[in-house]
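Summary for the steering committee. One of the milestones for this cycle was to obtain a three-dimensional model of the protein with zinc ion bound, which we needed before selecting residues for the alanine scan. The sequence and ligand used are listed below.
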Amino acid sequence: MKSDNFSEWFNELLVDAKIMDVRYPIKGLYVWFPFGFTLRKLTYDMLRSLLDREHEETYFPLLIPENELLKESEHIKGFEEEVFWVTRGGSTELEVPLALRPTSETAIYPMFSIWIRSHADLPIRIYQIVNTFRYETKHTRPLIRLREITSFKEAHTAHTSWEEAKKQTEAAVALYKEFYDRLGIPYVVSRRPQWDRFPGANYTIAFDTLMPDGKSLQIGTIHHLSTNFAKTFDITYEDRSGNQQYVNQTCYGISERCIAAVISVHGDDKGLVLPPEVAPTQIVIIPIFTAQANSEAVLKACNELKHQLSRYRVVLDADDTRPGAKFYKWEKQGVPVRIEVGPRDISKRAVTLVRRDTGKKEVVERSKLQARVAEVMTEVLNTIAERAQAVLRSHIVAIETPEQAKGKKGFFQISWCGSESCGLQLQELSEADVLGEAEPIEGRCAVCKTPTNVRAFLARPY
Ligand code: ZN
């Protein structure tokens, strides 16, 4: 069960609901089943449509020459233990080893240096959805901790000033909020402490959600890079007075952890519960045949309904498996709406509609079905979003001493003077990480007792 053993529930559901096959013979690499890949496609189509409002999609190579990767010293320090290297072409040793991108700053920014000449070239906002590779030594886990991240959406922007770049980070926060709101995933947004920012960034803002086992999952990050990379990669533009200036940059990413969140936050003991917008099948129609029934009339009605509801992704499951087995199968795959049609429904010109999120049944007249289905799709998203939000809220707990967080589930808020040494002390005593700052309240730092209104968010992250 999900509540007893989340990890086991998650691993079993990935296979049972045909999301990922974990039998590929390389640690940390997994295979998308077609059903899982459709869920991924629909989720990333939504993300893509949000980005396309003000970004352009692009593609940069997988391989990065060693000399470029090593240029930014802080950046490489953050990644050097995680890089996979290509050192040979056939039997020939390469003169310059090539890295499989762990992330693409060092692939993209040398090109920015060529592309950007004048203030008229700015801002640049691009993104790509690609695989990236990290030599993870920790325990790997499908969708969550991977050696091949298959679906990394990374956006990279360049601007004329620090202020403009800051505005871009705010726009990115708004965009990620909309993305997760449409998935019904609740989140905490916070600025990571300086010791935990992205290597090479000025500051990092992160989205975290709560997993059913009480740990936090980082599901999106946004970085203000200031001029750090611009100085390393010589990305300059001529301003209006003819002077050369460094650009200010941002980058922000979301990986397939967004799918892990959808599965984990909404799923239940019967299987997936999917937000309608990304459900590979949104409606399943199931004919109920009885011994004395006119099955031809039932089937005819089902086909009419399928046609009537064709603006949705709808499946008519008319094979001769027993209805109970079909319910089980489609519930596992998280189909938001099930429509049952039996002989009695036909005589009443009605159908039975069953919601996956609540299991509630209702009889709907066929003439009102279209309108009712549209309402139900919205209600399903609202219901699962509110349910998840309530769980998250009830797991945000204010504590007085860091020890109170030990071994407990959820997010904790505790007074903190903001200093790194006290922050690290908080982490050690609570056995949790400082994610960032919570809403301010007057108090005294739980470590050094200095009066402060800052409070830290603590959680045990994946
Ligand atoms: Zn302190």
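Key point for the committee: The first strand starts at residue 20 and ends at 21.
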